[in-house]
Amino acid sequence: MRLSQGYWQTLKETPSDADVVSQQLMMRAGLMFKTGAGLYTYLPMAFRSLKKVEKIIREELDKINCFEITMPVVTPAELWQESGRWDGMGGQMLKAKDRAEREVCISPTNEETVTDLFKKTVNSYKQLPVCLYQINTKFRDEIRPRFGLLRAREFTMKDGYSFHIDKASLDKFYDEIYIAYENIFRRMGLEFIAVEADGGAMAGGGAKTHEFQVVADNGEDYVVTVPRTKFAANIEKAITTRKNLGSAPQIALEKFSTPNQKTCEEVCQAHGFPITQSLKSIVMNAVINGKDQYFMIMLLGDDNLNEVKFKNKVNAEHIRPAQQNELDRLGLVKGFMGPGTTAELKIVFDESIDMNASYVVGANEPEFHLKGFVPSRDTKAKHFRADMRMAKDGDFIGDDQIVLKKGIEVGHIFQLGDKYTKSMKVTVLNDKGQAVTPIMGCYGIGVTRVLASAIEQNNDKDGIIWPASIAPYDVYLCFIGKTPETKALAEDLNNEIKKAGLETLFDDRQLGPGQMFKDADLIGLPIRVVLGERDYQATGEIEVKIRKNGETLKVKKEELIPTIQKKLQELGKWL
């Protein structure tokens, strides 16, 4: 592309509503345009990178015999009603009615669509296993879209679905897709971690599943790692322990005044208690089998609730914090809550709590707390223990202290079992002619998320540093000088680079070197080639600069193409 004729422009100022580095740089570098809240138009250079991401995905999935299809973006309500998810997806699903008053939705995912397709086209074990995938638009009506492409409402996703006659077949393919995902993200030049994860709503909880997390400072997820054992898990999945907390001996239960002291931190600081000798009370509403139930989760004062663990433990369809009117009905005083006695409220003690030690808790009375609360002695309501806390720095897995890393989820693979095939009454004939329910796997990659994640991981104060395999172009070529000979030589270089099968962004705008170099760094292509009129006339050399590490070379014209090819190879373009 010639910049003088290209559809492209940079922004001098960072957009005020750009939350993270990738969003800021993509908008400043002219890669995308914000059309609305969580809605983006991909401009020519970003579009080229997206196509390269898709190409790598297709090549690796072809190797394991996956078949690409395209399913409709708009899907009928009947499919979702058949699986039981029409109401279960909540507000993320954008619903509408067509002119015939038929209910439809903009697909947030496609388990139902592909299961219906399979049901009507496959009837024998001889046609299994099979994996179908698409690269298509998805829409999830996020309450608060943010972080650019990392939390957009409309996005491009690769979603794949496999069908199997038995668990052994699913396990075998799961291992193959796992390796394919490792190859995909490695070829994209990303530093990533494959971590154990929670199956969530898609897999129904408890299923075998892994996330692929790109390591990045601005990641919205935390990954729990143990360097010695190379263990890695999503923070929502990891089960960790605390050590050497110290327990307070049992004393008589006593009420004391805590005016305007509503948090564990405020109470402990005012009265000299260690924070780990206080208990935090969190009341949650959980919809279980369509009915509202209420739980008070008790945590150590400096711990936080892991909502995923809680939801899975009680097998809830939905969970949310209890509202003020609900607390009033349960006889609980916000800021001063402790284990209530109403039969409607179940108490859950986190496993980090010593049930025989003394703690400070709310007294369920305004401006008062209790000290000397012993869970095993003083809890009157129905209760049980479970791991409810969020892992954090300083925790242990066994004897190893964990290390937390921030990451961005770009891929997720699930073993779905018969969650969808059973609810949608799918059967195939086995080798004995019997009708059996096949089982499924599900495999997603956030294509547009990959683009943002690559930039989050690869940038500096001057702009983007593209991984070579997914950069919009291989080479940024510019020239300094105004003589006809210099312009003609720059044209020749552009043609020679393209003839070698490489992609060139040719800056023929004839600006000053400062502006061109600034734009080159902002765009961040792997290699910058500069034809300087005076240098070339004096030495016959052309400058080659590597964006990633700043390495600068001076080469003769005949050495230019081999040098570019060698450097791109080193940068991983052809992994």
What can you see in these coordinates?
This protein is an alpha+beta fold. The chain folds into 3 domains: 37-69 and 112-238 and 405-456, 2-Layer Sandwich (BirA Bifunctional Protein, domain 2), CATH 3.30.930; 254-386, YbaK protein; 463-570, Anticodon-binding domain (Rossmann fold), CATH 3.40.50. It has 16 helices and 33 strands. Strands 3, 7, 8, 9, 10, 11, 12, 23 and 26 form a 9-stranded mixed β-sheet that branches. The protein has a 5-stranded mixed β-sheet with strand order 16-14-15-17-20. A hairpin with a 2-residue loop joins β14 (279-288) and β15 (291-300). α1 packs across α12 and α2 packs across α12. It is globular and about 95 Å long.
